[in-house]
Fold:
Amino acid sequence: MRRGRILILFALIVLFGVAAIYLVMRPRTPPTTGGEETPLAPQDTTLIVFSNQDIARGSVIPEDGVGLQPYPRDMVVETMIENDVRLVIGHHARQDIPRGVPVTTGMITDRAGDVVGTGSDAAFAIPPGYTAIAMPMSRLSGVAYALRDGDQVDVIISMLMVDLDPEFQTLLPNQALTLAGPDFSLITALICTEFKITQQGTECINPAPPPVGRPVSEDESGQIVFNIPTEAQRPRLVSQRIVQNATVLHVGTFPTAEEEEAPVVQPVPEAGGEATTVQPTPTAPLAPDIVTLVVTPQDALTLNWALGSGATITLTLRSPDDATATETVSVTLQYLMQTYNVTLPVRLPYGLANPLLEVVEPELPNDAPSAP
Structure:
């Protein structure tokens, strides 16, 4: 009987010893501010801060709003927050933080007003590597208002080219002046368009400045005459397609942030006590005068230059199934004459009763009449 008591006492001593050794040697985890134990991360992972709930932009991040979760070490970026939720709790959310996403340093701030806007929906429609640029359009340049968001278009520009003096960078011909030596003797030729005969001889009375021209031999008499231009230099027109397969992001003006919020129509009570809803006065829609295109950054620079230079810009509509890129040749007067076998009109001893001095553009019935 006494031996049995000794065995029981010995067994109890062994159990207490094992329990004491376990309590001393077991790993201890520091308590978290949220009251939950920090999970242990395997050796190939680390603990980063995740959002435990949806956190609204500008709100203070609560203790139960974030927690630590294991995350692969090779996928951790420098903006992620590791091991300590206290670096996040109490800060303001700079943007909407969905539940279950890693919290980065760019998502939080110490200042209440330092928040990030949600951005525009239009930006999500722009593929990476592309940009959006707005440009004016009319009924003629905008394919008769057939353009819709998502269409594919090409861009054509037309420019007027002139001859310039390479050094002066001014229109040719240059102004003709006479150059005299120190003794006032003429070094350059003096061209007379007006003169008078006096007792001393012929006197040149050219208006200032002397005219610009060149000496030529007259066909019939063979005399040398001085030809001067009857008008200023005529610009030369050239047209070319500069952008292919641009995407129409939006036709017309985008609504502002205030306009995107639907107005609340308040019911107005009548004399009898019943409330009636006041409907806004409808207004006639305005025709779009601007279009936004999605193009490459280089094409955006080209379009910006064309807008600044005053070139005429025309949009052409493409099929949605046509993504082919083709080469085009610049169109000039010479190209038209040679490519389409345009015959140069000969000089005839007869003509139209009314002289045709310019090409008459057709007037569309819906166009507003031009001011006199």
Residues 163-233 form one domain. The longest strand covers residues 236-251. The CA atoms of residues 70 and 281 lie 58 Å apart. The two ends are 133 Å apart (CA to CA).
